[in-house]
Specification:
single chain, Nucleotidyltransferase, domain 5, 5 strands
Length: 155
């Protein structure tokens, strides 16, 4: 009989945040405290990101922030890249000690829309597009957590 080993490499004392930054709205996702799962949280106005972060999170409980990096298929910048870079700078100035990582966000909106369609939430999405933003942030965060898990397993 195989003995199951506990996953000690993932135990952490804080959460990871995922952000899908847009010109108007920013989708937000959170991890669980073990950094294993990502959950869509909400969507806010991009202009209110710092106020939101300061009023909802304490730096000591954050492992880091993951920001979706908008790219074209050829790897170049998109019109959305400027918004993501601006938010990156604002957060870096607010919390210089917090880890901030970029994750390629190509296709996350399409994946989120497909998942909503398959789950039967298509009509709700048409009425409330902000659901897609937080779902996209969740995909961005999940991508990071998966990469982190793979790297931890290799080391």
């Amino acid at each position: 009989m195989t003995k199951i080993q506990p996953m000690t490499t993932f135990v952490s004392m804080g959460i990871w945040l995922g952000l899908d930054v847009g010109g108007k709205r920013t989708g937000i996702a959170e991890s669980d405290e073990n950094g294993l799962l990502a959950f869509p949280k909400e969507t806010i106005l991009t202009s209110e990101i710092l106020t939101y972060l300061k009023s909802n999170y304490e730096i000591r409980f954050l492992n880091g922030i993951i920001i979706g990096n908008p790219k074209r298929l050829d790897g170049g910048e998109t019109h959305g890249t400027q918004y993501a870079k601006a938010v990156f700078e604002k957060i870096s100035n607010l919390w210089p000690s917090v880890e901030i990582h970029w994750v390629d966000e190509r296709f996350t909106s399409k994946i989120a829309a497909q998942a909503a369609h398959l789950s039967g939430a298509k009509s709700r999405i048409k009425k409330n597009k902000s659901m897609l933003d937080s779902a996209s942030a969740c995909i961005i965060l999940d991508s990071f957590l998966t990469q982190k898990k793979i790297l931890n397993e290799k080391s």
